[in-house]
Amino acid sequence: MLPWRPRSVRLRLTLWYSAAVALVVLLYAVGVYMFVSRSLREELDRVLHDDFELVEESLENNDRGTDTSRWTSDPAHHADGSEPARWVEVWAPLGQLRFRSPGLDERAAPKAVPQTYEYVSVASSGGVPLRTLTGAHSVGASEFVIRVTRSEERVRHELNELLAGLALGLPIAVILAGVGGYQLARRALSPVERMTEQAQTITAERLRARLPIENPDDELGRLATVFNDMLQRLEESFDRMGRFTADASHELRTPLTAIRSVGEVGLREQHDAAGYREVIGSMLEEADRLTRLVESLLLLSRADSGRATVKRDHVALLGVAREVAAHLAVLSEERGQRSEINGDSGITAHVDPMLLREALVNIVDNAIKYSPRGAEIRILVARDGRGGVAIEITDRGPGIAAEHHTRIFERFYRVEEGRSRDHGGSGLGLAIARWAVETNGGHIDLDSEPGRGSTFRIVLPATPIFSALVRPASAARSRSQDSCSAIWSRNAAGSATTIIWMVLRWPSSRPVHWRRNSRCISGTYEAELRAQRS
To answer: What is the pLDDT of residues 1-23, one digit of tens each?
Structure first.
């Protein structure tokens, strides 16, 4: 961990940028130095090789093996910028010196005849760096060892100048990169500063303010867009919370005010037993309405906090629809209405039966309330055309205009015509229904026009085929009384699917059901069942 870390993002970006530039320039300088050094040394070695060939030519042209006219040179010749000094030595194989250029320090003879060219860097007695090439050459029957030498000082001098230039340019480049990086970071982060200044002005009372977006396509623009979307959701949430609080306060105040008013009237006036019973009955009605409202609010509160438990099971939808219709039969009979439930009994869904029943109760209850006397409430369970299952509830009420379709499921929202508080509702039923259906993985569609009634369509995901082969828990209780035809119709669409179903059931340690279905295939189970019933 660094002992000191700058807090400013701008400064950190500048430091990282400068460090990256310094590393790149350093690697570049090292590469350039190595490339130039290698190039200069290869050039010097090439010149030495040319000198070696000249010596060979001289030996070929001089029968004595010596030609001193070409190789007289002074080591100081390289200092004035002319061609670097060069020397040559010619040795016999036994170590006898045949020729040495003037001005060259005495050096030991080669220890052996070299098989290949040997390049070696040495230093003279005066400290001058030298580069030598040693090789063998034969002239007739004689063999010589040739050693040519050139000064390496110019190469060293050029490399030192290059190194000095790189060492001076590296800090200058890093400084310039730091200044430029700081300006770039400042310019790049200027939208962040503006967003910060704007964000500091956003409070609970100013949730309509939004962060500025200069370029919605870059990273900062997308970040500002995400924050603006979050602010939009917060604003809508605060608005809903405010409306919810106001509506809840109004709804709670209405039955409390009624209870207080009825109680005050009962205390001020003298009544007989029947009169007091009427007063108490009115108070109990308001208390019951208040209880239902509080229970609905608690249910929605648990739903918003995510604490509502969901226990899914494979549920036969037609059976749930009939249970709900029977549960609300008293209300429909009071209004002279009748319910018609149709559908396929084999349609199932993997849902929480309690939540689904809650949604159906609220929707069917609204259908009963807002349909005229003697009307028919129709409930249809069918398969959805897109692979799901659907429950349709159709009433003959006043209908709902198109502008209210998107808001009818909001909490405490009421359509002004035909759906007021006079019917005794709290405006939470459809909100609870939508939450219950969406929690089960489905959605609710509304098809309604004023004067033509309404159709609420609950669409749920269908039970997977292999899950459908296993019967719902509600049917398990009557499993012992099932006939073979029921087994075949519920568990498969034919003999092949029935066999697959029994194979899938075998690993779950159900030998009784295996034996029973086996007897169904063999034709013995029906006879046993008839004997038990008789």
So the answer is: 455 666 778 888 888 888 999 99
